[in-house]
Amino acid sequence: MRVANRIIAALLALGLAAALLLGAVEIVLGRLDRDYWIVPWPDWYRTLRTTPWDDTGTRVAFGIVIGVGAILVLLQILRRRPVSYPLEDQPGMAPAVLRRKPFERALTDEALSIDGVHTARARAGRRRIQVQAHTNRLQPKDLEDQLRQTINSRVSSVGFAEPRPVVVELEHRAAPNTNTDGRVE
Amino acid sequence: MNVGTNRRADQVNRRILTILGLLLLIVGGLGMAYSLGAFGKDRAKEPVLTDDVRSFVADQQRWFWPVVAAVAVLLALLCLRWLYFQLKPRPSMGDFTFGSGEDRGQTVVQSAAVERAVVSDLEAEPGVRKAGARLRQHADPLTVDAWVDYDSSSHVPVFRERVQDHIVSDLQGALEVDQAVVTLEVRPVSGRIGDRVK
To answer: Quick one: closest CA in A to B72, which residue?
Structure first.
């Protein structure tokens, strides 16, 4: 979402600057009784003189303006995951924040370092931290506990300013003709 | 890479885009309301550019169009400033002057020298793989914003204590200032490259 905002902001800044400078140039040309350069403003002027407010074209134009405005505002008010998390503020410690993305990558790698974990994905939200992992083992036994301990240990070693609950989920392969809860069908 | 530069640009973008979005909503909403007859059914039948507006502009054309052109140029310059800010959110600093105590007057140091010293100290700390720093402009007390790629298996609070005890103290001593702050952006890194779920 931030990338979309950056692209929109850059395009908008460039587009508005170009349009405004072009408008100024056309005004100067008009004052000098010269023909228009790029913007066919005499045609636009005639259209505005003949098109009533309740014309469908006018409504469509304002509808587009409303739509663009609504999209811009919605993009700004959408709640995003934080870029970084504040760490505990203690005297004798340098003030610090923790970057979310590298933290998620580190937790993912930590989960993958456990023998038996095949794939993993860590996701830090506004409040909690979630790790989803998958193992190819038919019976993971204590693997989930091991994973939970490892992730909890890493999270506690960071020293967050606020406690962040950790949710760990481990999926495992079902045995042939067996449910994931171990019951034979 | 500069500390927090993208986030600073993101915050400014967010404010400007919100204002632009609200302006478009207001203009579009008023125009649509006018078009639907909210300001009178008869008015909605009139052309968008009425004779009144036309005669007003014609009467005031001596100053009207020059003012419009000047405002357009001014706004265009602001847009270019905004664009430049997106590309370079923080101005680079050369020499950095700061008060170093009541009786000692002013001290001038190269900001790059301070940043290099902090980076060097940070990279010497156990667990730090890479670091960067930037002296904050016009900050009182003297503040250095730093980022570190930090070994995810190491204990962050211990590292922060070492930074406060050693690096901040050294900085205060070297620059002869009573107070200095080093803010940290910790980016955990691990050595393992594995199969992440896409």
So the answer is: A20
Instruction: State the pTM of this model.
Output: 0.72
Question: How would you label A117-152 residue by residue, b for 16+ Cβ within 10 Å and e otherwise?
Answer: bbbbbbebeeeebbbbbbbeeeebeebbebbbebbe
Q: What is the pLDDT of residues B21-49, one digit of tens each?
A: 999 999 999 999 999 999 999 999 999 99
- Please name the residue of chain A whose CA is at the shortest distance from the CA of residue B50: A49
Please list the residue range(s) of chain A that carry CATH number 3.30.300.30: 84-172
pLDDT tens per residue, range A49-95: 999 999 999 999 999 999 999 999 999 998 888 989 999 999 999 99
Shortest CA distance to B45 belongs to which of A46, A63, A44, A50? A50
Q: For the domain covering A84-172, report its CATH number.
A: 3.30.300.30
Q: Are strands A96-99 and B106-110 parallel, antiparallel or unpaired?
A: unpaired
List the alpha helices (DSSP H) in B60-110: 61-87
Please report residues of A whose CB lies closer than 8 A to that of B21. Answer: 68-73, 75-76
For residue A51, what are its two tokens? 């098109």
Partner A contacted by B170 (CB < 8 A): no
Please judge whether B14 and A121 are an interchain contact, meaning their C-beta atoms are less than 8 angstroms apart: no
The 3-state DSSP class for residue B171 equals helix
Return residues 52-111 of B near A (CB < 8 Å).
54, 65-66, 68-70, 72-73, 75-77, 79-80, 82-83, 86
ipTM of model: 0.73
- Tens of pLDDT, residue by residue over A108-141, are 999 999 999 999 999 999 999 999 999 988 888 8
Question: Is B20 in CB contact (< 8 Å) with chain A?
Answer: yes
Contact B156 A132 (CB under 8 A): no
